[in-house]
Structure to design on (275 residues):
């Protein structure tokens, strides 16, 4: 009787474990558990932080009566000639931008150097607005990041660098821009490289099969973040031994594991029958 029970339950378990173990490609496999356990307030809010060497476009506007005065708080427009069809050129005007220097400051009209590095976009706008408000009533200050981009490399369909126009991008958004992960990607070991203000690099690992990524402080990306998608073991073997040999090696490894499990189970069955 014990022998029959083992045959019914043990061998199907071995069979299905061998089938499902090699690939782990589904995203957020514990999502339902995550949704049940996450508490309000744990979900992240995000606003980009200004860093050294960022390129910023800052403009100041005011009511119509203040237009002459407000002009002094804006950089002058620059003109350039753009080529047109037929060999002609057209003059265009563009707004100048500010570069945050190595000290974390910009040189602003009228006020001179203003420290912005380390501030959020809202904080920087409020700081400039308070300064301008000493000269004109109801100023409106807008700030836009002009050099915000992230880079995605490795086992994705379209690796490259991508501009962040909405100034808010998650690691999931970035991987989507790169065309998603390939079937050979290791979804449990995504690497994020982030350069800190002191020049050192920070290395963070993500497991895309788990949902705790949504509450990670690194879920939303910062300027010049780099995402590296590493290959899975099968892909590594293909690279080392060639596609055919790597595939065979992977199959042999699976078969060896299955045989080992079956052998161990058989020994246990025989021991039970002897009893």
């Amino acid at each position: 009787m014990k022998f029959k029970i083992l045959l019914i339950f043990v061998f199907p378990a071995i069979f299905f474990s061998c089938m499902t173990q090699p690939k782990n490609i589904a995203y957020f496999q514990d999502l339902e558990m995550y949704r049940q356990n996450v508490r309000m307030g744990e979900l992240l809010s995000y606003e980009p932080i200004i860093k050294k060497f960022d390129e910023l476009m800052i403009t100041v506007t005011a009511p119509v009566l203040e237009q002459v005065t407000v002009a002094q708080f804006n950089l002058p427009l620059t003109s350039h000639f753009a080529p047109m069809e037929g060999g002609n050129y057209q003059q265009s005007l563009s707004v100048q931008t500010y570069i945050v220097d190595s000290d974390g400051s910009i040189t602003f009209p009228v006020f001179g150097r203003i420290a912005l590095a380390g501030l959020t976009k809202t904080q920087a706008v409020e700081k400039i607005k308070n300064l301008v408000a000493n000269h004109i009533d109801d100023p409106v200050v807008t700030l836009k990041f002009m050099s915000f981009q992230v880079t995605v490399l490795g086992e994705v369909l379209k690796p490259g660098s991508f501009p962040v126009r909405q100034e808010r991008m998650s690691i999931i958004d970035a991987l989507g821009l790169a065309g998603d992960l390939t079937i050979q990607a290791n979804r449990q070991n995504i690497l994020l490289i982030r350069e800190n203000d002191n020049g050192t690099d920070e290395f963070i690992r993500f497991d895309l099969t788990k949902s705790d990524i949504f509450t990670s402080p690194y879920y939303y990306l910062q300027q010049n973040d780099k995402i590296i998608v590493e290959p899975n073991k099968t892909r590594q073997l293909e690279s080392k031994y060639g596609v055919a040999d790597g595939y065979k090696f992977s199959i042999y490894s699976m078969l060896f594991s299955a045989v080992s499990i079956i052998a161990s189970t058989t020994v246990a069955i025989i021991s039970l029958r002897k009893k």
